[in-house]
Design a protein that fits this description.
With about 100 residues, the chain is α+β, with helices and mostly antiparallel strands. The chain has helices at about 1-10, 25-40, 70-80, 85; strands at about 15, 20-25, 95. β1 (about 15) and β2 (about 20-25) form a beta hairpin. This is Guanylate cyclase activator 2B.
């Protein structure tokens, strides 16, 4: 029984959106980084890209999003999808749950 729980815990849930496939955990990390940057105005940049695009802690699977002018809206959509709908696997954009 413990082995089964470990296998289920090792499965990653992915979100597919606009040609990107990112892990649910990466989107959660994105939200944490954005909160950190909001609370620390010294981390603000004057770039057209979202501030998180300049953060070395941004998960690798989210970094390609920063190559697009629509990065802010893509990140917003990913955060919206990543709400409980993904954890409950009721959103068709979420894969790997089971």
């Amino acid at each position: 029984m413990v082995l089964l729980l470990l296998l289920q815990g090792a499965q990653s849930v992915y979100i597919k959106y606009n040609g990107f496939q990112v892990q649910l955990e990466s989107v959660k990390k994105l939200s944490e980084l954005e909160k950190e940057q909001m609370s620390n105005p010294q981390l603000k940049t004057s770039s057209l890209l979202p501030d998180v695009c300049h953060d070395p802690a941004l998960p690798v699977d989210l970094q390609p999003v920063c190559a697009f002018q629509e990065a802010a809206s893509i990140f917003k959509a990913l955060r919206t999808i990543a709400t409980d709908e993904c954890e409950l696997c009721i959103n068709v954009a979420c894969t790997g749950c089971g």
